[in-house]
User: What shape does this take?
Amino acid sequence: MKIAIVDDSDYDRKVLERLVRDYMDRHSISCTITCYSGGSAFLKSFAPGMFEVIFLDQLMGEMSGMDTARALRGRDTNAAIIFVTTEPGFALEGYSVQAMDYVIKPAAAGRVDPILTRLVQLHSPGHFIDVTENRMPRRIMLDDVRYVRSMGHFLNLHTDTEDIKTYMSMDSLLTQLQSMGEYGESSRGLRFQNCCRGYLVSLSHVKSLTDRDFLMDDGSLVPISRPKMREMRGAYAAWLFQKSRMPG
Assistant: This one.
């Protein structure tokens, strides 16, 4: 992963660089990090596709982070922008340049690590699960799964093209999805949600939300249990919000 850190504070730059390197080392992820002391120096050497992720200080003396971001977006709409700021309120300005997220100074691993996890997931190949159907191994891309229904000791995976019945428990599937960062008991914004007893829905295939169900993009309905309705509304809103902040 190619990462840029733009900050006119030498101390803050080094702190953030150390946090990013520590994360990448812990997860055995190859990366290159290039540091810049200001927006002008960054833009002078920048070319489209040069970086996948750009950490950008908002309050730089020579050229503000917002002005740098606007100039950047004029050349590259795909790079993920993460603002680094001293005030949470400033982060709201990031919507105009499709900023993905923000970090409050002083940067800390508790804030930086989840952002890096999401970035790694976005830039990694599509996730998949290996299942067995009629004693034959199958590899199913998660992008293709609309929803899953538990039927006793079996799961019925409803995909874009077919329904696949496999001998697997829902708990086993959830464990796999959680290890890939696709599911979490209390995490909003994740793709797969346990919306009703025996049902798992992929929010990437949801067209809209009704009073009782998820309306899927193929016209099918996935039920939402009454106790989970508020949670699912929040999860779906968080998913849409996250998608709206993804560049490109």
Q: What stands out?
A: The helical segments are 10-26, 39-45, 65-73, 109-122, 170-179, 229-244. The CA atoms of residues 102 and 210 lie 32 Å apart. The longest strand covers residues 145-151.
